[in-house]
Amino acid sequence: MNMMKKAMIWGISLAFVVTGVRAQSLDDAKKAIDAEQFAQARTMLETLVKNKPKDGENYFYLGLVYLHNEHLDSALTVFDQGIAADPKNNLNTVGKGIVDLYKEDANAAATKFAAATEKLKRRDYLELYHIGRAYIDAPEPNYQKAVEYLDQAKAKNAEDPLIPLALGDAYMGLGNASKAYVGYRDAANLDNTLTRARVQMQVITRGSHAWQEAIDGLKQIAADVPDYAPTYRELAETYHAWANTATTIDDYNARNKEAVEFYKQYMDKTDYTVDSRIRYADFLVYVKDYTELQVQAAELAQLEDVNPKILRYLGYSAYENKQYQESKDALDKLFTRMEAERIIPRDYLHLGLADIKLATQNNPTDATLFDTGIEQLKKAVAADSSIADDLNDVGKELFTAKKFLDASKVFEIAAYTPTSRNFIYDNFYLGYSAYYAVATKPVAQRGEAETALLHKADTAFGVVIEKAPTTQDAYLFRANVNNLLDDTENPKGLAEPYFLKYIEMVKEGGDAEIQKNKSKLVDAYSTIAVVSVKRGDYQKGRDLIGEILKLDPENAWAKQTLQYLEQESAASTGAATGQ
Q1: What is the rounded distance in angstroms from the CA atom of residue 469 to the CA atom of residue 298?
Q2: CB of 99 within 8 A of CB of 112?
Q3: Where are the TPR repeats (predicted)?
Q4: Residues 135, 153: Cα–Cα separation, whole Å
């Protein structure tokens, strides 16, 4: 017996020791499912299958428990066993269709649902109800189809409260809160002990952003029915949703702290099995409680054959807690253990970020590991372009640390993603960091790679100018880039048009803007002046230096250079006249 199975059995046994539950009937098992006590329900149903091996309905509900815990293969096996044991019962054929829905094969599911419902008797409605329920709960819900099947079920049996309850959920999915409320109200009227209907009415209240009213209502339900676990989960989710509207970090943290506390109560009132702990980990991801997530994930990761997404959570949380080697180790293991189709874009993101952090911890950067991280980031953005939004802060952190080349590689990914929220900003910083990566390197060490970087910078600033033409500094830095691209001995004046545009924009801003940018203006004038002189245009050089002296009358370089140019001009004039 492997460790995973031992853990499952231990969890079930503990639940029975604590609660003293004894399997009595299929109704008991259904109540356990409704209360989200899935380990208890599973044990009850396994006992029922053993004691009544010809009753197909027991197999069906056992399969549903497996489905809820994402054990699709186990569910399919149980449904097949149910069909073999009770061929006339259509529910297990419905179950096989539900497995198809969870595998996102809607056509195969529809075929099985049609087979299960084509010869229903006049009073048979459970098949219709469970198909409707399945279309609500599937990974890709189809709420309209759910309504169609549930309406058929209701036409056959208007007394089963689970049908209007499910209709309420379907209408919630369709965004029709008024019809959803009618469904929940009707379910509660048919069975006043149906706590879930009361809970769902508060979920509607939450949907209107009446946070405190929803919390008060859910707390009242918890006081009335303290052992009903889903109430505490909805309280947790309500506090988390409320936290996402917070305008201060303190409110955000306080509400999420309440959310986690209520989720712990939910866990205490369910089974605390491996599967329920994985759902707890899912919730911790949503509320960004990385400290608790890392604790839970590290414990679960020790179990053999545990769901590999726990390694994902361990990798994410370790990264957020600045434990980069632990993050990389977990994510490397994830990539070896998880099926390729279950790898998600953010797995590449976090592995790339961990590689980058490890590569840049010391000077110089570990270029090989850094570039490996960049490749992971590229994969992440290629799979989900919205991830480019997350790279701005990473690039700026590297830029601030004066790792300009590294920063440029990060910004380049985002700058080449036009849908990025920071597209213009990322292009500016790509140009900015690429320019400084070259400008801070000794001239003797510059080569083809540095020239390529400057061309990237020039293109990036060109994008900024095109998309946001009032960005003054884009012209200034494009000028600086082109100045480095120009031939130092025989310059073509590549930078001049950009410097002149920058000067024009600053002057248009008035005296205050001129004073604010005085040093940059001096640099612009002096650079154009030097190039002009090298190109033999001494008068233009003198005029530009005159502009510098207007801004800064005591500028020593300008005074000395102007004196030199006048001497050269005089000497040139004298030579020309023969004096």
Answers
A1: 51
A2: no
A3: 56-89, 522-555
A4: 14
Give the separation between CA 111 and CA 432, rounded to whole angstroms: 59
d(CA 9, CA 46): 13
Of the candidates 194, 197, 183, 289, which has an alpha carbon nearest to the alpha carbon of residue 236?
289
For residue 309, give both structure tokens. 């997404």
The two three-digit tokens of residue 352, written as one number: 């790339």
Q: Which of 513, 497, 438 is nearest to 462 (CA)?
A: 497
- Cβ-based burial of 127 (10 A; exposed 0-12, middle 13-18, buried ≥19): buried
Amino acid at position 513, single letter: E
Residue 507 is which amino acid?
K
Cβ neighbours of residue 125 closer than 8 Å, sequence gap 6 or more: 152, 153, 156, 157, 160, 163
DSSP code string of 105-153:
-HHHHHHHHHHHHTT--TT--HHHHHHHHHHHHSSS--HHHHHHHHHHH
Helix axis angle, 345-359 relative to 324-337, nearest 10°? 140
What local confidence, expressed as pLDDT, does residue 276 receive?
82
Residue 379 CA to residue 192 CA, distance in Å, equals 53
Exposed/middle/buried for 480, CB within 10 Å: 0-12, 13-18, 19+?
A: buried
Cβ contact 431:415 at 8 Å: no
**DSSP class of 386:** G
Domains of the chain: 486-569 (1.25.40)
Sign of the CA dihedral with 91 first, then 97, 102, and 106 last: negative
Closest CA to 525 of 476, 469, 492: 476
Rounded CA gap, 570 and 549, in Å? 21
For CA atoms 163, 169, 173, 177, give the dihedral sign. Answer: positive
Instruction: Report DSSP letters for 199-268, one per residue.
Output: HHHHHHHHHTT-HHHHHHHHHHHHHHSTT-HHHHHHHHHHHHHHHTT-SSHHHHHHHHHHHHHHHHHHHH
* The Cα angle at residue 55 between residues 54 and 59, in degrees rounded to 5: 110
* Cis before 364 (ω within 30): yes
How far apart CA 235 and CA 228 sit, in angstroms, is: 12
Cβ atoms 90, 83 nearer than 8 A = no
pTM, entire model = 0.71
- Predicted confidence (pLDDT) per residue in 269-311, tens digit: 987 778 888 889 989 988 989 999 999 999 999 887 788 999 9
Residue 490 has pLDDT above 60, yes or no: yes
